[in-house]
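tool_log.txt
---
The assistant was asked to compare two proteins side by side. It first ran the structure predictor on the initial sequence, then on the second. Raw inputs and outputs are pasted verbatim so the downstream comparison step can read them without reformatting.
(1)
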Amino acid sequence: MGRAGVTLLEMLVVLAILGILAAIGITSYLRWSQRARADAAVAEVQRIVTQAKARVRTTNRDVTLSLDTATHTFTLAQAPGYSAVYPVDAGTLSLCQRTVAGSTETCTATTAVTLKAPYGTLGRDLLFRIGTPTVNRDAYLLGPTALLKVVTP
């Protein structure tokens, strides 16, 4: 006569399989959440630059975009008396002016850049380095029109 039920060994095998699947799932989720956070920070930087360019075009005045690396905030400033602060959720955030000579690329760290009237043009290409503990993104503002290109290293 057979008994209905689950043996202790069967229960341990099922628990071991569930543990392995949970470990794989948690690490995948953590990687995904870090990538999503970095991508959201890039999108926020793009939105801030777009807003700065729009402000230049509507007011026909230069706008200075400043980065505070300690507080991870951007400040848009325009004379007379306009200033707006925008936080960016990123672990690390840096800005540099990019220069390419032949096949050599150099990056000079900076904390402020001015978008020139009347169209919001830049004097040089810029590189925003945006990072979380495990994921980094490079966002380039290229050319006089400040076209944004994101690179995943």
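(2)
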Amino acid sequence: MLFIIHYLILRIVGMLIGSYKEVFGINVHSKKEGVFMNELYLMKVGNLYGFINNTGQFIIEPMYCDARQFSEELAYVKTTDGKDGYINYKNDMIISIDADYYGQFSNGLAHVKINKESFYIDKSGNFSIKPKSVGVTGFNQSGTAVVRTEGKWGIIDKLGYYVIPPIYQALSNFSEGLVAARKDDKEGYIDVNGEMVIDFKFIKAVSFSEGLAVASLDGNNYGYINERGEFIIEPQFYQAFDFKEGFARFRDSKSKYGFIDKSGKVVIKNKYQYVGDFSEGLAVIQVKDKQGYIDTSGKVIVKPVFEPASEFKNGLAQVNYGGEWGYINKKGEFVYKPKGFDLW
């Protein structure tokens, strides 16, 4: 009897875990193969697009004349005979739709444009929302999207109802519970109820990231404020960007890029032609029009030889060499090597 009870408990727990993974979209990891089974990467060979896994094996052979990366297990593709839609990991065309613009799925919905009108479709291809507005963004993790109606900006939920009414000159989406908004030519922050929490006193204010937001009082010097609107890092930068993984990139008046930490200290000297945000511990750098990667100490991990290089996602980054695509891991080793690459 005890054995039967124990067995039933294990079955119930297993079912609950399975449901939890399905509901919350957790990747199922195969220890046997050592790969994320539901993660595919866009790959272009010649003029056709396909998808590989993280070992460089083609799961969907190059067969599309246009395609985008997978998002929430669906990817936009255009067939060679001109049909548009979204495929799943099995290469089944789940949604067939003729539109002018195809957005990625986010929070279960994708933004599409048909005859200059914006709509949102669900994963079955049904029109979920037909807002009387110009769609501006896809839905973010909070389940909201920024839209514009008659020149004014607001925010809708997944049912199409306004969370923030369209009364602002400009809006960001929710980030860390706050929205950067512009009213009467000044910018500040409102909360989920539309109440002002930081005065409209800035010439420029952007979304919060890692507890701080870029802001400027004069439009010439940028610093970082906290959620009370206090400058934690005084305005001093010609151009400043969001914090990612504890670091923020900045650009000086001579168009050189570097990184600061959350104290405002320059930790990686502004000497690069361009830098990208840190992602999975590495950031893109550009030197003499070629791109590579550095780590958070500023050490060059992958030499700048690509044109261009993208940020890392799930351990891989897409790179281009001589017009040919490839993917590298965080050691700079090729999972899929571009044709003609012979530098290492």
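---
observation on (2): The longest strand covers residues 58-67. The longest helix spans residues 2-24.
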